[in-house]
């Protein structure tokens, strides 16, 4: 892993992803005490950063592998990303989705041509269903977050942010499966100037926070968070990157996520999903730490199920 690898990744996928805008708000700066730069991956193709990693992972497969298709398991955003990336590259995408996945994300997968297999809402059921498709179809499994090519693709969001604002003191990313924060940390390490990577994580699914404390991958007893994209856990590929390059993780309560999301909708005038708001919630919870700092915030996506959305 080196700087050149990341530069090659960015060049490889550039024709298939958006260089998303960076938003600012004087009011949110005043509220937080810092100078905030929001990298708006809610404006990415299919509405989330995961388009980056999915595209890079498929493009790194051999022609024979691409012809047999790809498979993943995802509650929504990576399912959409892999479906659209596969469609753009002429590849079949098989998607294992939990039955309780948001309808807006399920409909999007179908719209992008993904072939859905339903499963129960737990990691074991997801993995078993995906393994069966691999056995039957010969498709290549691409993990939503614990895959180096996915992580490298994800890193390009922070690379773009640092290209415009190379003097950021830190970049904050939401933490779920670890693929985004791992990529963000690599970008900050190779392209930032003493730029720290910080994670935001729901208190009720704080496996990454605990994993960095214990030095081993921890699991969650509950996944009962409004941030549905962060209900997964770290893997053996991304965890070492977090250990080496992530400064710390800030945990936030559910009501803090909702408050942060409401502020983003009201003040930036953009649609972000709850998982995106977790990073901003971490800033609001630790104003003293971020006061006077230049802070990059990855707004990871904007795929909201309006039927279940709540602001109070």
Structure in a nutshell:
Residues 14-301 form the Tryptophan synthase beta chain-like PALP domain. Its cofactor is pyridoxal 5'-phosphate. With 312 residues, the chain is of the alpha/beta class.
Task: Summarize the SSE layout with pairings.
Elements: H1 3-13, E1 22-23, H2 26-32, E2 35-40, H3 50-59, H4 63-68, E3 70-73, H5 77-89, E4 93-98, H6 103-111, E5 115-119, H7 123-137, E6 140-141, H8 148-164, E7 170-174, H9 179-191, E8 196-202, H10 207-214, H11 238-245, E9 246-252, H12 254-268, H13 274-285, H14 287-290, E10 294-299
Parallel strand pairs: 2-10, 3-4, 3-6, 4-5, 7-8, 7-10, 8-9
Antiparallel strand pairs: 1-2
Helix pairs in contact: 1-8, 3-5, 3-8, 5-6, 8-9, 9-11, 12-13
Molecular structure report:
The protein is of the alpha/beta class. It contains 14 helices and 10 strands. The chain folds into 2 domains: 3-49 and 147-299, Rossmann fold, CATH 3.40.50; 51-141, 3-Layer(aba) Sandwich (Rossmann fold). The strands form 2 sheets. It has a 6-stranded mixed beta sheet with strand order 1-2-10-7-8-9, with helices on both faces. Helix 6 links the parallel strand 4 and strand 5 (115-119). The mean pLDDT is 94. Its cofactor is pyridoxal 5'-phosphate. Keywords: Pyridoxal phosphate.
Extended strand count: 10
The largest sheet, given as strand count, sense and whether it forms a barrel, is: 6 strands, mixed
Helix content, binned percent: 40-55%
CATH topology of the largest domain: Rossmann fold
Q: Which class best fits the helix and strand makeup?
A: alpha/beta
Estimated share of beta-strand residues:
15-25%
Overall CATH architecture of the largest domain: 3-Layer(aba) Sandwich
| Radius of gyration computed on alpha carbons | 18 Å
């Amino acid at each position: 892993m080196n700087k050149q690898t990341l530069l090659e990744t960015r060049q490889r996928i550039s024709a298939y992803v958006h260089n998303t805008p960076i938003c600012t708000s004087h009011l949110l700066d005043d509220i937080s005490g810092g100078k905030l730069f929001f990298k708006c991956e809610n404006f990415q193709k299919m509405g989330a950063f995961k388009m980056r990693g999915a595209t890079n992972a498929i493009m790194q497969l051999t022609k024979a592998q691409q012809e047999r298709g790809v498979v993943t398991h995802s509650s929504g955003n990576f399912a959409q990303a892999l479906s659209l990336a596969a469609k753009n590259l002429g590849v079949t995408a098989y998607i294992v989705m939990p039955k309780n996945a948001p309808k807006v994300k399920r409909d999007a997968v179908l719209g992008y041509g993904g072939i859905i297999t339903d499963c129960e809402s737990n990691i074991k059921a997801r993995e078993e269903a995906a393994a069966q498709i691999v056995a039957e179809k010969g498709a290549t499994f691409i993990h939503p977050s614990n895959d180096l090519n996915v992580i490298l693709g994800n890193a390009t969001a922070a690379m773009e942010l640092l290209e415009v604002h190379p003097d950021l003191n830190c970049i904050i990313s939401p933490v779920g499966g670890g693929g985004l924060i791992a990529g963000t940390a690599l970008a900050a390490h190779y392209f930032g100037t003493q730029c720290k990577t910080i994670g935001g994580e729901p208190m009720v699914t704080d496996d990454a926070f605990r994993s960095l404390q214990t030095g081993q991958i921890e699991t969650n007893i509950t996944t009962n968070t409004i941030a549905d994209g962060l209900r997964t856990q770290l893997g053996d590929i991304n965890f070492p990157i977090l250990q080496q390059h992530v400064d710390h993780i800030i945990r936030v309560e559910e009501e803090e996520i909702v408050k942060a999301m409401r502020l983003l909708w009201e003040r930036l005038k953009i649609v972000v999903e709850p998982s995106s708001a977790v990073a901003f919630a971490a800033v609001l919870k630790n104003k003293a730490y971020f006061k006077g700092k230049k802070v990059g915030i990855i707004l990871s996506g904007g795929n909201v199920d309006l039927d279940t959305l709540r602001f109070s």
